[in-house]
Write a structure and sequence with these properties.
Blueprint lengths: L2 H13 L10 H11 L6 H12 L3 E3 L2 H7 L6 E3 L9
Parallel strand pairs: 1-2
Length: about 90
């Protein structure tokens, strides 16, 4: 994708009726989760923190993240466990 195409795609996405969430403590929570789960980056932990905030399930294809978090976070689900007949 060229820079120009990416800029146009971004402009279209931002023009959509999308509600952005930015809970005040999401970054601190993600940082704490990353440390607790011994993750070197916080981007995955942001998704987990957001799932906690929204009180919803968090499906991931990252089996290492799932294995690190499953015992502590009942909201996390591994995509490999998703029923084949529902795909």
């Amino acid at each position: 994708m060229t820079h120009e195409d990416a800029g146009q795609a971004l402009a279209k996405a931002l023009a959509c009726d999308i509600r952005f969430l930015d809970p005040m403590d999401i970054h601190v929570r993600a940082f704490d989760l990353a440390a607790r789960l011994k993750r070197s980056a916080t981007y995955d932990s942001h998704y987990l923190a957001l799932a906690e905030h929204l009180d919803c399930r968090f499906w991931t294809a990252d089996e290492r993240l799932y294995n690190a978090a499953k015992d502590q976070f009942p909201r996390i689900r591994w995509l490999g466990d998703y029923p084949a007949e529902a795909r």
